[in-house]
Specification:
CATH topology of the largest domain: Rossmann fold
CATH architecture of the largest domain: 3-Layer(aba) Sandwich
Shape: globular
Helix content: 40-55%
Low-confidence stretches: 145-151
Radius of gyration: 18 Å
CATH class of the largest domain: Alpha Beta
Number of helices: 11
Largest sheet: 5 strands, parallel
Strand order of the largest sheet: 2-1-3-4-5
CATH superfamily of the largest domain: Response regulator
Number of strands: 5
Structural class: alpha/beta
Strand content: 5-15%
């Protein structure tokens, strides 16, 4: 009897935007090579699913998923995934285009970083590569190309260190210096200094100007 073959690569999706989950899930379901094992909206749900299902091969996760006090998001979450689930390939699908952060993600063990504004079909190219043990660098990121509408802000943001970037990401959410320090496991003095350094690098004059810049850039949302 002819049976439909089981999909061999099990993929777990995590993003707090349902439309992104639907788009990536639909793309993968069109392929006979991949099985969507779950579509989750929080870091805690992602971790719980990985703990419950050791057969997951790949995680495709957003970089920004606010509101999870236990695991956080950003570098903190990605580093936790790589440290605790070394058998799982991690692909980051994000709006974030900071070169230093992207390089840091590859450095700690992410297999591919894809930008949401690009053709979603690149997810399949990345999956094909990473499931064969390779690291995939999308040509657009590798060549440093940027849409003209974001060149100026992207150039400014590229001056930030990964630690400064993380402080701004939490700051623009409305968190106090004390909350940011707690979330990032740093001292209040350290995160305050990193925020001041970021303001100086971005040529801004106040916290209000910083918030306006972050919102306008779209980088931190």
């Amino acid at each position: 009897m002819d049976k439909h073959p089981m999909k061999s690569i099990r993929v777990l999706l995590a993003d707090d935007h349902p439309l992104v989950l639907a788009a990536v899930g639909s793309l993968l379901n069109q392929s006979r090579d991949y099985e969507v094992a779950g579509a989750l909206t929080t870091p805690s749900a992602l971790i719980d699913n990985l703990l419950a299902d050791p057969s997951i091969d790949v995680v495709i996760t957003d970089y920004f998923m606010a509101g999870d006090e236990k695991f956080g998001d950003g570098i903190r979450l990605i580093a936790y995934l790589i440290r605790n689930f070394p058998h799982v390939h991690i692909i980051v699908l994000t709006m974030m285009s900071n070169t230093m952060i992207i390089n840091k993600l590859y450095e700690i063990g992410v297999r591919s970083v894809l930008l949401k504004r690009h053709d979603m079909r690149e997810v399949l190219i990345a999956l094909n590569s990473v499931t064969r043990g390779r690291i995939y660098h999308p040509p657009v990121i590798e060549n440093g190309e940027q849409p003209t509408t974001v060149v100026r802000s992207a150039d400014s943001i590229s001056k930030l260190t990964p630690k400064e970037y993380e402080v701004l990401r939490h700051f623009v959410r409305g968190e106090s210096m004390t909350q940011i320090a707690e979330n990032l496991k740093r001292s209040v003095k350290t995160v305050s200094a990193q925020k001041i350094s970021a303001i100086r690098k971005l040529n801004l004059e106040s916290d209000q100007a910083l918030v306006a810049f972050c919102i306008e850039s779209g980088e931190f949302q």
